[in-house]
């Protein structure tokens, strides 16, 4: 190769690199997931998950001043009372919390605390951090500055966000998913309230169908706790989406002092869903509640004062209404069903349109009379003036050069995008949050009506055809296309479906909390031997790399509502994360699948399994 050609090639390479740096390339995503303002409102800290950094946004100048790189993929952050230190929870298995000096950007201390630390809250005296260990299903009390785990407390199903009351007496944790038998009459996510003095916990149950409880907030006056969630109408056949037939979207109110549920109100309009409510924040004067609608790409602004007044004036139920001579009056227990309850009390502001490019608000912060929204898929922060007569969104700042989305990122956006659903009622993520299961049973029409079954996790779904519990879709690729058509009631471009395929292919298992230093424990190894024992025949159907023979079998699990007896053999990988179990989610505890249900007794002698063998087997399965 001549010198001239080498020089020409070198210059061309420089041009390509310069273009990439100026326009952004696939993979250079920011992904803001939390915003924290300083007390004086001069700096807005943005926790950017995909970039693994904290960005310092100068509010007055609307620009990113600098950023601090983080040692791992962050889950959450909280600011010390003196605003000198940011505490960041990062990582999954053997997750850590670190202290970062905001002046220098240095990590001054860190400690291993548990699986996926999030929901970080520092006590008023700065001596303790409380945290959710999402995939350990526990709450942790952690001392500072040594990050020693002082105590662990039980939560329910994936505690993912939390708040600490102003007096430090109560730590409220939002459990992401329900932990109930899915074939029951009432299935709902719950809030775990920890009494920090006694260590006692109380579960506060949300209305039937509550799931995907992403965020939780405390009102500045400390009176109320608010949390966002989907309110699913999972007991209805999926024949339509209009008027919230499948999924509605709202927030719940908890009396922080009494530790009691107040009510759930919907953010949807009668003909327009407020899909996938995610972050929630209350203005400093307690007058407004702001909710980011991550699926419909909007900001909902609710009059908090009038909402509470309206709720307080309602009789509790029909019996009380009758006693008061108000038989035809709306009652408090009807509110979670009322799409029109907040008419005149809420405003929905578009963050995405032909002129605006704000996709998926997953972080909110209020400074003065303005609310700032961190847009996960467009790597920018939008701003809405709450004092305006007609609030509108404007782009406040770009967090970095705008990257070009690759197929995986486009597919992830499509999975979470309710604009791909008729009237924006839901997205794929409404029933498959993070492409996993919402822990609910759904009566899909692809195998007849009246036989509800548990939503499946999508991880490995493309690797192990067919799709659906009865194998009615030849593969996951086909199921993606029919899902848009018959669940979202919309026709989407073929290229969008291809992108979703790439997103599903990219999904990885989260390491199991049952592993020890990344390996099977001694107990799990004993369970592996039980699993492979020909007497119990577990590996007869659950075989190979994905623990499935990809065939239909009758294993005696048919229930009253089932139309047939044979079911597709599901993969066992990652089942620690997807209770309840079996096709109809009848068992919350995997032990009961064998000890009560004698699952697999058709082919093996599972009925002869001892409790010790079952315990070892469950340990192995939950380690996969």
Helix content: 10-25%
Main structural class: alpha+beta
Q: Note the quaternary state here.
A: single chain
Number of helices: 11
Find the count of extended strands (DSSP E, 2+ residues): 33
Layout of helices and strands, plus pairs?
Blueprint: H1 3-23, E1 32-37, E2 43-48, E3 53-58, E4 63-69, E5 74-79, E6 85-90, E7 95-101, E8 107-114, E9 117-122, E10 128-133, E11 138-143, E12 148-154, E13 159-164, E14 170-175, E15 190-195, E16 201-205, E17 210-211, E18 216-218, E19 224-232, E20 247-255, E21 260-266, E22 277-282, E23 288-293, E24 298-303, H2 304-312, H3 318-323, E25 346-350, E26 361-367, E27 370-375, E28 380-385, E29 393-398, H4 407-416, H5 428-431, E30 441-442, E31 453-454, H6 476-486, H7 494-506, H8 522-532, H9 538-541, E32 552-553, E33 567-568, H10 590-595, H11 611-621
Antiparallel strand pairs: 1-2, 2-3, 3-4, 5-6, 6-7, 7-8, 9-10, 10-11, 11-12, 13-14, 14-15, 15-16, 17-19, 18-19, 19-20, 20-21, 22-23, 23-24, 24-25, 26-27, 27-28, 28-29, 30-31, 32-33
Helix pairs in contact: 4-7, 6-7, 8-11
